[in-house]
Structure to design on (180 residues):
């Protein structure tokens, strides 16, 4: 009887160790997925000269999505002076920081362009949504990233964030608008 109790106790101990140790080792080996170098573009179009101005684009998390350094939001500044023929009339900037994800899930970030100040400018006021989906695939933790326009039901997935601003010549409304 005493031998059975000892055997049962050893079996219970072995079972507990077998269940607890892998979890303890897994704690120190947490995998995560990261998104870095999230780029935003502003295309300058129209039939008038492009005014020199700085534009601000803001990224805000939705529903508690993780942010670099727990920031409330991130902003980048783009200068329209960089919209030249050589680069297709596009100016670009990267949001600073690394977005890290350690749990499977779907995360969203809202990206908006704050309006500029040019009297002849019409600013893209669409709300872009950056989607990050994280999941396990075998032993690897991975991610997918895509962009959509908020409110569009077609659900076209894009690979980049691009706003298009139009600058018109109010003295010549019949002058066709140039869109690169």
């Amino acid at each position: 009887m005493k031998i059975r109790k000892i055997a049962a106790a050893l079996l219970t101990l072995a079972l507990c160790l077998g269940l607890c140790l892998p979890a303890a080792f897994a704690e120190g080996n947490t995998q995560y997925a990261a998104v870095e170098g999230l780029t935003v573009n502003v295309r300058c179009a129209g039939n008038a000269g492009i005014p020199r101005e700085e534009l601000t684009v803001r990224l805000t998390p939705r529903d508690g999505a993780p942010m670099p350094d727990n920031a409330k939001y991130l902003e980048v500044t783009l200068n329209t002076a960089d919209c030249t023929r050589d680069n297709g009339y596009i100016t670009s900037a990267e949001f600073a920081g690394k977005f890290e994800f350690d749990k499977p899930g779907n995360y969203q970030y809202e990206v908006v362009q704050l309006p500029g100040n040019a009297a002849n400018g019409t600013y893209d006021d669409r709300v872009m949504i950056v989607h990050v989906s994280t999941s396990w695939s075998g032993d690897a933790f991975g991610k997918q990233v895509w962009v959509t326009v908020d409110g569009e039901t077609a659900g076209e997935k894009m690979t980049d964030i691009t706003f298009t601003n139009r600058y018109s010549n109010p003295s010549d409304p019949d002058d066709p608008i140039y869109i690169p």
Q: What stands out?
A: The two ends are 88 Å apart (CA to CA). The first helix runs from residue 2 to 27. The longest strand covers residues 105-114. Confidence is low (pLDDT under 50) at residues 5-29.
